[in-house]
Amino acid sequence: MKKLVILITSLLWAVQANATLMSVELDSSSYMVGDVATANIVISDIEQEFGFQKLLASFEFDLTFNNTQLGYRESSFGNLLDVDPLFPSSQFTDSTSVAGEVYMSELSLAFGPDLFFAQSGLDSFTLASVSFDVLASGTSMLELTNVELGDDLGIAFSDIATSSANLTTNSINVSEPSSLAIFGLSLLLLLGRKAAK
């Protein structure tokens, strides 16, 4: 009897594995004022059900940021939910309702087999990308909130973890004094040559 309980417990643990992870991944480790910074929203460690990775058919989230340092530029969606050419997915972005926040959602209208062929075997993939104009120096945390995920049967994912990112910005690059001195010296030499002739 004890062995049966242990077997059932281990099967249940295998069925309900780790939490699905939603993370923010930046395209660079640091930025300068005036740069364009892109944050990719990546799903990984996708939860399993009965030993199979669940199919993702819908998501929604808010991405919060420091709007004194970053200005929203544009956003785009990945291509692993929009897999049926006859039934394009429903995609929505709102960057104006709340300052310092971008809301994004996508609902796939594809059938389960289409999603399976697109997502099967992938450990992680990008759901969306959000680009910002870097306005000021400092550090801004990009954080995911109000995350909801759904599978191809409309059932919500049970366990979701999130990972944020810190965007570090340096002040704008100014020409170094030594570069200006070399340029000025070269100009003086040229003028001196012309005067000598």
List the defining traits of the structure above:
alpha+beta, Immunoglobulin-like, 6-stranded mixed beta sheet, 3 helices, 13 strands, disordered N terminus
Distance between the termini: 107 Å
What is the averaged pLDDT score?
85
Name of the level-1 CATH class: Mainly Beta
Provide the domain count: 1
Largest sheet: 6 strands, mixed
Uncertain parts: 2-16
Taken as a percent bin, the fraction of beta residues is: 35-45%
Describe this protein's structure.
This protein has three helices and 13 strands; from the N terminus they run αβββββββββαββββα. It is an alpha+beta fold and 197 residues long. It has one domain (18-196): Immunoglobulin-like. The strands form three sheets. A six-stranded mixed beta sheet has the order 2-13-11-6-9-8, with no helix packed on it. It has a five-stranded mixed beta sheet with strand order 7-10-3-1-12, with no helix packed on it. A two-stranded antiparallel ribbon has the order 4-5. Strand 8 and strand 9 form a beta hairpin. The termini are far apart. Mean pLDDT is 85; it is low at 2-16.
How would the blueprint of this fold be written?
Blueprint lengths: L1 H14 L4 E7 L4 E2 L3 E9 L3 E2 L2 E2 L4 E7 L5 E8 L12 E5 L6 E7 L4 H8 L4 E11 L3 E13 L9 E4 L1 E6 L6 H20 L1
Parallel strand pairs: 1-12, 2-13
Antiparallel strand pairs: 1-3, 3-10, 4-5, 6-9, 6-11, 7-10, 8-9, 11-13
